[in-house]
Specification:
heterodimer; A: mainly alpha; B: mainly alpha; 16 helices; 0% strand
Chain lengths: 200, 401
């Protein structure tokens, strides 16, 4: 099924032998449809993953509620969705995978330097948690079907994109929370200071 | 009274039965001594069997149903509504999906009853009874074993046979002739990750430097491979392997072991215990696969690979019976789970000197694991990628060129 839809989605924008009256849509619209399709697939499959739910609970306890469970789940799912979307683009335009992976991981390292230990642990682990026994074969098959349909060399690499995506998105969310918390603390300190001045 | 206990008592559906109704009436023989009571054999009608089994099977079935059906529905609907295409071979696809659901259900239950208790006992008792090097060696071997048992690894092999040898010779070779080596490379990666992750628990290392240290060689190898046009095609596979390894078998077993060791070491009490192993387990296999690819590249040239393949294709040997669809999955299912079980058993019996407790339940769980793996494999090849027929469709335009 994964392969079938993978190879058929390509029919949205490219002329194919085995699909009558293809391309079905104008090129740009077709590519957009394929991307949206992949994005929703990644997003939905990840949100349904039971392991992610468990991770979310742990994380909420770990950060004393600063990082909400739903927030983590959405961050990871959006990350996976975007990752799969980029992966589809990679297969489509035959972008060498190194061009995406190396900047992606360099960015991840950069974010890691600035994040606190808890968020680093959570973010890097969330990449592994997202890939369950149903998602992996589906996405692999879809990638290969897609790759074959547009006659790319190989359709691997979509999963790799799907693991760098959540790392980046969770690290970014973590940083945003850190900044928000520290700003709130600073504001509280300033208020306390102001009150102190007032009392004197 | 605790609130949770109160809620449980209130919500429970209970009925009080007098003990007298359960005890048999005593019969006295001539001397006035009670005769020993022999219960009659229970006889179950089919409806009783069904009533007993439904509450056990139903929730587990529904769990997997929830995981598979929305995805499948989404794919089918998208295909019909947006792409205006019908689903090819609807029957084989739906039987395959049903097999995937049932297989997953059996496997998860088997994992819970069979493999997990094994791993937990070992994680608990091993560090108390053996020295650290022995513990680490066993952790390493366990990491290799669980990788082979991972159901998604089978998907890699199914999918790999579609790759066109002329376009990506190394990729094809890795996925066909060198599959065993590929599995081993991934397994060694996971094993090393288990060892280092455990050491991290014990010594309380920070994850940050570990991530930097692991990523440096990974990225360096990636750059090296990307520079070679033939090797660059393997990169996608290598990075995908990292994601595949962290599945439903590896994560719980490796975590159970790691946390057990850390708890015995006395330093693993931090709230972050348990994190990090998964990260390492998804990065190390990438290095493993890329190293293997570089090694293969140094052994054979792409031209030789293509020639070999074409020679093989020319002979067109009939596929042996064990390589055809149902038999192949059965063999794979056994090969995936049985060695892991034997390894765990040997460790428990001879390294720890413990007896197997509740052998019946354990055996039942392990049986379910093997069965589930087989059904899942069959379902994958029929349902998620009915690849044989689609491949025929693709090879036509290729040969025309």
């Amino acid at each position: 099924l994964g392969e079938q839809s993978g190879s058929l989605v390509a029919a949205a924008f490219a002329p194919l032998d085995y699909v009558a009256d293809s391309p079905l849509y104008v090129y740009a619209v077709g590519v957009a449809i394929a991307l949206v399709f992949a994005w929703i697939l990644g997003f939905g499959a990840t949100l349904a993953e039971p392991a992610l739910n468990a991770l979310g609970l742990t994380v909420e306890n770990l950060t004393n509620g600063a990082f909400k469970k739903s927030m983590l789940m959405y961050a990871v799912s959006i990350g996976v969705g975007c990752g799969i979307g980029v992966g589809v683009l990679k297969v489509l335009y035959e972008i060498p995978i190194a061009y995406i992976l190396i900047p992606g991981y360099l960015l991840a390292i950069l974010l890691t330097v600035f994040s606190s230990e808890e968020f680093v642990n959570v973010a890097w682990d969330s990449a592994g948690v997202t890939t369950g026994p149903v998602t992996v074969p589906l996405v692999l098959a879809m990638g290969l079907g897609f790759g074959n349909a547009v006659s790319a060399v190989e359709g691997f690499g979509i999963l790799a994109m799907a693991s760098i995506g959540p790392i980046l998105s969770v690290l970014l969310t973590g940083l945003a929370i850190q900044i928000a918390v520290s700003r709130r603390q600073r504001a509280a300190e300033r208020e306390a200071a102001a009150e102190g001045v007032g009392e004197v | 009274v605790r609130f949770s206990e109160f809620v449980r008592d209130v919500s429970i559906n209970q009925e009080f039965v007098s003990y007298n109704a359960l005890t048999p009436t005593l019969e006295l023989d001539e001397d006035g001594i009670p005769r020993p009571y022999r219960p009659k054999n229970l006889r179950l009608r089919p409806i009783d069997v069904q009533r007993l089994l439904t509450p056990y099977v139903a929730p587990r079935f529904v769990d997997q149903l929830k995981a598979v059906v929305p995805l499948a529905l989404y794919l089918v609907l998208f295909q019909i509504v947006v792409l205006r295409q019908t689903v090819g071979e609807p029957w084989s696809v739906s039987w395959g999906l049903a097999a995937v659901i049932i297989g997953l259900m059996l496997f998860m239950e088997g994992l819970r009853l069979g493999l997990m208790p094994f791993a937990e006992t070992i994680g608990d008792t091993l560090p108390k009874k053996s020295k650290l090097p022995v513990v680490l060696i066993i952790a390493f071997m366990l990491g290799v074993g669980v990788t082979v048992a991972e159901p998604a690894i089978g998907a890699l092999q199914v999918v790999g046979s579609i790759v066109d040898v002329r376009k990506a010779p190394y990729l094809h070779v890795l996925l066909t002739e060198w599959t065993a080596a590929l599995l081993l490379a991934v397994g060694v990666g996971v094993g090393l990750a288990t060892v280092i992750g455990t050491l991290r628990f014990l010594n309380g290392w920070s994850l940050k430097p570990l991530v930097y240290l692991t990523l440096a060689p990974t990225l360096a190898l990636t750059v090296y491979c990307a520079a070679d046009p033939e090797l660059a095609k393997v990169l996608g596979l290598a990075w995908d392997c990292g994601a595949v390894t962290t599945g439903p078998v590896t994560v719980p077993i490796v975590l159970a072991l790691g946390i057990g060791i850390a708890a015995a070491g006395g330093k693993g009490e931090s709230s972050l215990a348990g994190f990090g192993i998964i990260t390492l387990a998804s990065l190390f296999p990438i290095i493993g696969v890329m190293t293997l690819a570089v090694f293969v590249a140094s052994q054979v040239s792409p031209e030789v690979v293509i020639q070999n393949f074409e020679a093989l294709a020319a002979q067109e040997a009939p596929t042996p019976w064990y390589a055809e669809t149902p038999a192949r999955e059965i063999v794979n299912g056994f090969r995936a789970v049985v060695p892991l079980i034997i390894f765990l058993f040997l460790v428990l019996r001879f390294v720890l000197g413990e007896k197997v407790r509740e052998a019946g339940i354990l055996g039942y769980g392990l049986l379910l694991c093997v069965l589930g793996m087989i059904v899942f494999g069959v379902g994958l090849s029929y349902g998620l990628s009915s690849w044989a027929s689609s491949r025929a469709a693709w090879s036509r335009p290729l040969s025309r060129r």
